[in-house]
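To: structure subgroup
Subject: Chain for Friday's discussion

All,

I'm putting the inputs and outputs inline so they're searchable in the archive.
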Amino acid sequence: MFSFIICFLALVASYFVYGKVVERFAGVDETLETPAHRLQDGVDYIPMSKIKNFLVHFLNIAGLGPIFGAIQGALFGPVAFLWIVFGTIFIGCVHDFFSGFMSMREDGLTMPYIVSKYLGKRIEKILAVVMVVTGILVSATFAKGAADLLSSLTSIPVIICITAIFIYFLIATIFPVDKIIGKIYPIFGALLLLMAVIMTGGVILNPAYTIPEFTTQGLYLTDQSIFPYLFVTIACGAISGFHASQSPIVARCIENERDARPVFFGAMVLEGLVALCWAAIAMAFFHGQPQLAAVYGSSPAVAVEQMASALVGPVGLVLTIIGVVICPITSGDTALRSARITISDEFKISNEKIIARLKLALPLFLAAFGLTFVDFGLIWRYFSWSQLIVATIVLYSAAVYLIKTEKQYILALAPAVVCTLIAFGYILQTKIGLGLPAMISNIISVIATAVILVLFLKKYR
């Protein structure tokens, strides 16, 4: 358990140490008027408090991500702790902070516009398509996971559960941000955190379970190679480009730039802590490969129910409903909301009238609804890779921003290079990609990443 505690404390400390470094290099200015005040429209641009924005953003970026991904990542053993910690601090937090901060500086606009400003127009349309598709994949993934568990708890057919969830998605996505999201999502964000705390306490206080240590034994419990599979399996809770699609939602509600670190950096740290807790819970509860192998690549919703019921008794059922049914549903609708505002930004469509928002949202809902009938494991793997591509592009944009402001651009460039390497390695090696042998794919990945780095430095330095 000492490995878990050290990693936990390292994540907490990162907010106060590295968070201030990132904030200083970004150039936060408390005197600047934010888009929430300057462009207030009663729909998407509405000032909200720091605490409310923090909890809303945490819930938006979390959902099932740091739960399901961490449980599946636990199959790799305690080495997953290291990826969660270092990935969160040096990649995820940097990505999340700059995606929110740059959006705030650009009138709360979505990432395709911001990326086009720093990396050029050519990539804008591609990124817009990827981000919209990612939003659809996220909503489908979260809706399917929640519906599976809800059906198992109530015996209601899955199709009815999915339909009910998507009806809610439609309502929440087209309503003004302060009507539903601003009112009830902070509560669910707090409950998601409480669930992780209670479950972790259930493991620590029960002598029947032991959180494994980071030792030379038991680090590698699967035939899947650590690189690149671990780094894609645990996405939310380390690095996720999906967060870049969520950042503009809250960037349009930030009251003062000084709130950027608590909201964007802080929410990512908290998600890393939740992922760390769930990875530890899964390792302790399932005791190794045979049990965890059954969870890997499939919907872990039932596994969450089993763990919650065993660790905290009757309270476990309530926690499961809140954490794995309600919370992912609330993230699913914001995924579609971000897709809506991305499209409206690209085509400069006004969202003030509800009929305009409905016309944009309906096709997105139909696409997401159709994807819920596809295998969960397949959706998750494509989602994980697509969000990694988005994160990589956003990090390169942040590096250019720092170059232009004459700051230490290595802060964003280093994690961008790491993400590039992982993205190439995964799509070249995995069965859903080219399926190349590990050695060949790794060599190609290193060469391709080096070429991209050289081209980047040549153009922007």
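Points worth raising on Friday:
The chain has a mean pLDDT of 87.
Residues 2-388 form a domain with the Amino acid/polyamine transporter I fold (CATH 1.20.1740.10).

D.
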